[in-house]
Amino acid sequence: MAANGILFLRVSLGIIFVWFGVLKFFPGLSSAADLATRTISILSFGLVGPELSMPILALWETLIGIGLIFRLFLRETLLLLFLQMMGTISPIFFFPFETFSSIPFVPTLEGQYIIKNIVIISAGIVIGATVRGGKLVAEPPRKNQTHPEDGRVLKNNKV
């Protein structure tokens, strides 16, 4: 799990972003389109209408997915992901009567769709921890144990 967990997390998250992003290129296929266009309109102070917001959002999400799947420009990809998540969470505040049937404890289907993004944000943080070479290890090294990759002797869990 430690050897492949981050790879699986990154690729599976990428697949979700590509899938949901591509759906937004085709009018009527994304169940989130209406809420997304209204949210973008509010966030852009009415400057970006639905005819422009959906293709931009579709491209944005698809690029995030491609970046995650192929590990391309990972820092920039994760920045796009976190910015997109801020926009995705905002309908809870802009449209609380559409995202909750009983505020704040009973989310509607749209609210559940938004709340699950907590997991996506957490996944992004975990993936981000690997950008500069961080990785999961199956078990911390014990005293005087050799390093599993290069055989160096570890003293007190240090090289």
Top keywords for this entry?
159 residues, mainly alpha, two-stranded antiparallel ribbon, 60% helix, 3% strand, transmembrane
Give the number of DSSP strands: 2
Order of helices and strands: HHHHHHEEHH
The backbone outline, from C-alpha atoms, is: elongated
Distance between the termini: 24 Å
Mean pLDDT: 92
Low-confidence sequence ranges? none
Report strand order across the widest sheet.
1-2
Counted up, domains total: 1
- Tally of contiguous helical segments: 8
What is the percentage of strand-forming residues? under 5%
Transmembrane segments: 7-26, 52-70, 77-94, 114-134
Subcellular location: Membrane
Keywords: Membrane, Transmembrane, Transmembrane helix
InterPro entries: DoxX
Notes on the structure:
The protein has 159 residues and is mainly α. The chain has one domain (5-128). Helix content is 60%, strand content 3%. The protein has eight helices and two strands. It has helices at residues 5-24, 33-43, 50-70, 74-89, 91-94, 96-99, 109-115, 117-128; strands spanning 100-102, 106-107. Strands 1-2 form a two-stranded antiparallel sheet. Helix 1 runs antiparallel to helix 3 (50-70), helix 1 (5-24) packs across helix 8 and helix 3 crosses helix 4 (74-89). The longest helix is centred in the middle third of the chain and has 21 residues, at 50-70. It starts with a helix and ends in a 31-residue tail after the last helix. The mean pLDDT is 92.
